[in-house]
């Protein structure tokens, strides 16, 4: 029987352990942190998760889709908030039953660990921080001095993966890049109403687009909203770790007073007055709902936003990078978790393919190298595609959703989806078509987006559009890509 060491007990690692155990593979999962089911988890870094069809498909294969969706809040579109407090809902799809789900990262992680521990052969090991990997032998080294060897090691230890860093140091020709946005993020909070209800529209992802920055809010099951402010660190290309508010550690006189929209940056919001004035001006309909705004702003960390790409993802059959360890992305398409879950699903399908084709004499013996090489060839073009789309969607959410031309385009797309079952916007291809590879969604989606934006620039009334003609032109576009 094969034995696998998974480095990282986050969402991808916990789900992967279930998939492997169901295929008769023994799994040891090593996690740097303590058991989140028993210990408090540091706040301020959750960025609520948007569970959509690709992630749901993976959960369905292990019988956890209905259970997790029962704990989620459906979101049917983006609710756009203007600086004057006006709102407009841009639906995600014109088809019934297509929506995304706001779900607790911690709640999902706990549910996956609990399910994994029901499986025979799965063992979790906490407070086991991986600090290095001997790439020639596949031996994992931990901060407490322990070492572990397994038939294979699968690293799901996130964007800062220690396993990937070991490969960078030891594997000739290994290529890796991490590109940070000059924006960081800060988690904030809108509590539930006194009666436990929602103070904003419950079934929407709320967006306050302000061109150089934005805030979003996702609903929680308890009536609260998890808000995230995305803002430049300062006027330079510094990382988020360099721009946390310094009001509690800087000596001397702090800059105070009004911060203009063009100057808005974390480094310029250094005291209570500047934070309150900034939020009252830019987010007037939200600030009155945020009684702990100042405490949250200075108490929660400033997170970084970056894209990780690397190659190759494996060392023979000894080591594989999966999820964020191989391809971390910014969160603006809501696909980080969904993509990692699809990674797990694809890897499991390749395992099934190999095991089903084995002669009886080799039953149960896994050729990990063959599986890993097929896996990386299938996934690399698609993870590159969604990483690029995620970064582009930042600028769409921050800038374009407030553009009247873009809003007309979304209205037209909604009508097309209501009328033609075979029409999918780029967003729908990515979010609701788990049968369509990300790379195909990018190629087709970019072509039709370019056409529709041109079409809508000179358009005054969506109701007067000849939908059949537009649909025909888009169909012809798809034959060219």
Folded structure, characterized:
- The chain is an alpha+beta fold.
- The protein folds into three domains: 3-42 and 105-179 and 307-389, FAD/NAD(P)-binding domain, CATH 3.50.50.60; 49-103 and 182-304, FAD/NAD(P)-binding domain (3-Layer(bba) Sandwich), CATH 3.50.50; 403-478, no CATH class.
- The chain is 37% helix and 20% strand.
- The protein has helices spanning 11-21, 53-61, 65-69, 105-117, 162-170, 272-282, 284-287, 293-299, 324-327, 336-356, 368-398, 404-419, 426-432, 438-457, 467-478; strands at residues 3-7, 26-30, 49-51, 73-75, 77-81, 87-91, 100-103, 122-125, 130-134, 139-142, 147-148, 152-155, 175-180, 183-190, 205-209, 214-219, 225-232, 302-303, 306-311, 314-315, 319-321.
- A seven-stranded mixed β-sheet has the order 6-5-15-16-17-14-18. A six-stranded mixed β-sheet has the order 8-2-1-12-21-20.
- A hairpin with a 4-residue loop joins strand 10 and strand 11 (147-148).
- It is globular, with a radius of gyration of 23 Å.
- It starts with a strand and ends with a helix.
- 43% of the residues are buried.
- The model is unreliable at 237-241 and 244-257 (pLDDT under 50).
């Amino acid at each position: 029987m094969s034995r696998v060491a998974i480095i990282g007990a986050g969402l991808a690692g916990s789900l992967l352990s279930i998939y492997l155990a169901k295929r008769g593979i023994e799994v040891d999962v090593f996690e740097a942190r303590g058991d989140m089911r028993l210990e408090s988890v540091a706040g301020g870094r959750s960025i609520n998760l948007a569970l959509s069809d690709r992630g749901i498909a993976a959960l369905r294969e292990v019988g956890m889709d209905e259970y997790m969706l029962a704990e989620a809040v459906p979101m049917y579109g983006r609710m756009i908030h203007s600086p004057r407090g006006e709102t407009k809902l841009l639906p995600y799809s014109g088809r019934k039953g297509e929506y995304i789900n706001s779900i607790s990262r911690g709640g999902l992680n706990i549910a996956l660990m609990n399910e994994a521990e029901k499986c025979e052969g799965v063992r979790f090991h906490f407070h086991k921080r991986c600090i290095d990997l001997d790439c020639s032998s596949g031996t994992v080294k931990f901060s407490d001095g322990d070492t572990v060897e397994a038939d294979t090691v699968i690293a799901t230890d996130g964007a800062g993966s220690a396993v990937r860093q070991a490969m960078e140091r030891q594997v000739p020709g290994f290529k890796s890049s991490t590109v940070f946005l000059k924006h960081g993020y800060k988690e904030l909070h809108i509590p539930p109403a006194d009666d436990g209800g929602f103070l904003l529209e419950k079934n929407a992802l709320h967006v306050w687009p302000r061109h150089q920055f934005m805030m979003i809010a996702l609903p929680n099951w308890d009536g609260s909203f998890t808000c995230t402010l995305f803002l430049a660190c300062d006027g330079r290309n510094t990382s988020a770790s360099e721009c946390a508010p310094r009001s509690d550690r800087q000596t001397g006189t702090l800059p105070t007073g009004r911060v203009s929209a063009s100057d808005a940056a974390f480094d310029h919001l250094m005291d209570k007055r500047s934070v309150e004035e900034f939020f009252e001006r830019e987010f007037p309909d939200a600030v009155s709902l945020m009684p702990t705004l100042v405490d949250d702003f200075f108490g929660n960390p400033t997170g970084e936003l970056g894209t990780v790409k690397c190659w190759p993802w494996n060392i023979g059959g000894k080591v594989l990078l999966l999820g964020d360890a191989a391809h971390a992305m910014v969160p603006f398409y809501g696909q980080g978790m969904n993509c990692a879950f699809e990674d797990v699903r694809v890897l499991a399908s390749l395992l099934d393919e190999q095991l089903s084709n084995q002669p009886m004499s080799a039953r149960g013996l896994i050729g990990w190298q063959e599986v890993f090489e097929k896996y990386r060839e299938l996934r690399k073009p698609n993870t590159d595609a969604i990483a690029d789309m995620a970064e582009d969607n930042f600028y769409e959410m921050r800038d374009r959703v407030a553009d009247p031309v873009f809003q007309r385009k979304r209205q037209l797309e909604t009508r097309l989806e209501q009328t033609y079952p075979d029409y999918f916007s780029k967003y729908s291809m990515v979010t609701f078509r788990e049968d369509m590879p990300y790379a195909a969604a990018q190629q087709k989606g970019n072509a039709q987006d370019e056409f529709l934006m041109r079409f809508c620039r000179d358009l005054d009334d969506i109701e007067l559009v000849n939908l059949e003609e537009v649909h025909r032109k888009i169909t012809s576009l798809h034959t060219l890509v």
